[in-house]
What does this fold into?
Amino acid sequence: MNKKEQKTIQKILWISKWKNPILALALSIMISVFAISALADKDSDADQKNQENSTKKTDVNPWSISMNEKIKLTDEQWKKKLSPEQYRILRKKGTEKAFSGEYNASKEHGVYRCAACGQPLFDSSDKYDSGSGWPSYSKPLEADSVALEEDQSLFTSRTEVLCERCGSHLGHVFNDGPEPTGNRYCINSGALKLETTDAKEEKSEEKSSD
It folds into this structure.
């Protein structure tokens, strides 16, 4: 209701008050109902816009964002993007059972990416059978592909391995690996997504054809 309409209504109410008090009362009630209804509609529109904005934020796809950009999503957004098992491992620092992971015994060639954001993490050429029950690598694909943090959980000191891009938990690194690095990056299969060499070649051909 604009100012002009408000002045007109006030004038009608003032005239009605002296000439017809009952009509003035009825008009007052009608105006109150109208005002309340208008406010309710306004609040409803605002709630709908907030819901739409929230949905847009939730629909963020980390894999579609430039690999040069850091990924920061809310806990609720990660829950929607990841499977329950991936969420447990990647965002809640869980560990899959030994010898149960998809990539533990895998011999396929390619690049292992972060299952949460697509960051390239390990190359299959650096993967080896450690006998631990988890995929093991002698080194990351690039020095800055992963981040390391001290982990004091489980009453022992270990070095946690995180995705450098999105901060997701991957596993731990130990100093009992093969030469020349002497490291064993013990990683959960659930934290990884293998992009096979064939898949990489197909993508390269698609870009060339474009």
User: Anything to note?
Assistant: The helical segments are 3-19, 21-58, 75-81, 84-90, 197-209. The longest strand covers residues 146-151.
